[in-house]
Specification:
With 89 residues, this protein is mainly alpha-helical. The protein is built from 4 helices and no strands.
Length: 89
Amino acid sequence: MNMNSYPMGMRRTGSMGRLVILGFISAILGFLFIPEIFGSIAIILGAYIWKKEPESSSGLIVLIVGLLLMLVSIEIDGPTFYIGYFLPS
């Protein structure tokens, strides 16, 4: 079925929709646990979605949310706990 045959606002969720959801989940995980890894995943997924679907703003939103949550989490927590685990004490 053609994408244009769906009513306004009723697009089917394909692989890009799943990537958007995965990007938001990784942004939230980056805020809660390891921002350097999960935040980077959210930023990369957002850039990929934005490149593949430039007419949709969902990729840009995932990119911005991932970046902001990563920066806020790093500012609040400082270096995350796993970095200190590998450094000699």
